[in-house]
Design goal:
Strand content: 25-35%
Distance between the termini: 16 Å
Order of helices and strands: EEEHEEHEEHEHEEEHEHEH
Strand order of the largest sheet: 3-2-1-4-8
Largest sheet: 5 strands, mixed
Structural class: alpha/beta
Shape: globular
Helix content: 25-40%
Radius of gyration: 19 Å
């Protein structure tokens, strides 16, 4: 299975994703205005994941949709490599060779896909990079078996970086790059996008729960760690992609802890820092329960994955 398999169906995508001890699902309809949330659900995995998944699939009539699934952090690796100068039909073979010493498992045991990182248009002869996404065959196979067991037609396995890219693409300023930072049960995800393309993605080892801890000293340490990681990522982006500047940093929904983080980042960074809500991106009138901070945080990446459109063939 490819991570970014091309497929078409009028009803759009139904995304099913685990978020800690919860299973989230979403479907979005694109139109002239904001993308409208058509289906949205988030339930606790009370018994087992297969049982919860099967029940949710029946309730949401998953058979009507192309279904996709988000891998969790730690289930795949995303590595930037120099784009090989080979024909497109030889690209993945060449990438596989370059990854043989970069993965923490044998490359022959990997399912691979690639993402192009746009190069400077004013320097066409300069080599550019690509992201290689690799997951263990065993992880992909188990996920396929899970969906087959629950009689769900799984068309695509996706990753959080692309889901976040989809949301950022709707908030960008033309000709400028946008940084977007989100937190969930697995940790923080910082992305840099421009023109609807993903340029840089960094993981931050801070979970949403750590942002809300009561101990003031520990919370201060967490905030300092986030600022340091964001500053390092901004510096790296500016060095690597000097031809495009970052207009601002957006923080994904998360309640009072995200507001406190915004104030801290705003006083330590040179660029504007703003909080966003799902309503800034989506029409959520069909799912009013998405107004709560907890729901906004839990559903952020799942809704982002539901914005999926056909990817360009590399």
């Amino acid at each position: 299975m490819q991570f970014f398999k091309r497929n078409r169906k009028a009803e759009g995508w139904l995304v099913l994703a685990a978020q800690g001890r919860h299973l989230c699902a979403a479907s979005v309809i694109r139109g002239a205005g904001k993308p409208a949330v058509a289906r949205a659900a988030c339930v606790e995995i009370a018994q087992s994941l297969p049982a919860t998944l099967e029940k949710m699939a029946k309730e949401l009539d998953a058979a009507r949709y192309n279904c996709s699934h988000l891998l969790e952090a730690g289930e795949y690796q995303m590595v930037a490599v120099e784009a090989p100068n080979v024909p497109s039909n030889e690209l993945k073979t060449a990438i596989r060779w370059r990854l043989k010493d970069l993965l923490d498992f044998h490359v022959d045991d990997a399912t691979l896909d690639v993402l192009n990182i746009p190069a400077d248009k004013n320097a066409p002869t300069r080599s550019h990079s690509m992201y290689a996404v690799a997951a263990r065959n065993q992880v992909v196979q188990k996920r396929q078996e899970l969906f087959e067991q629950t009689r769900i037609n799984l068309s695509v396995i996706d990753i959080p970086e692309m889901a976040q890219r989809n949301i950022a693409a709707l908030l960008e300023t033309e000709g400028r790059a946008l940084a977007l930072l989100s937190f969930d049960a697995q940790g923080g995800l910082l992305t840099f996008t421009a023109g609807g393309e993903l340029y840089l993605a960094r993981r931050i080892d801070v979970s949403a729960e750590q942002l809300t801890q009561a101990d003031e000293a520990q919370r201060a340490t967490v905030l300092e760690r986030i600022v340091l990681e964001v500053q390092r990522s901004l510096d790296h982006f500016e060095r690597q992609y000097h031809f495009i500047s970052v207009v601002k940093l957006l923080l994904a929904p998360g309640g009072e802890s995200i507001s406190a983080l915004r104030n801290y980042l705003g006083s330590n960074l040179y660029l504007p820092v703003e909080c966003i809500a799902l309503q800034d991106v989506f029409d959520t009138s069909a799912a009013p329960w998405l107004a709560t901070p907890q729901a906004q945080q839990q559903m952020f990446l799942t809704l982002g994955a539901a914005l999926r459109q056909e990817e360009r063939v590399l």
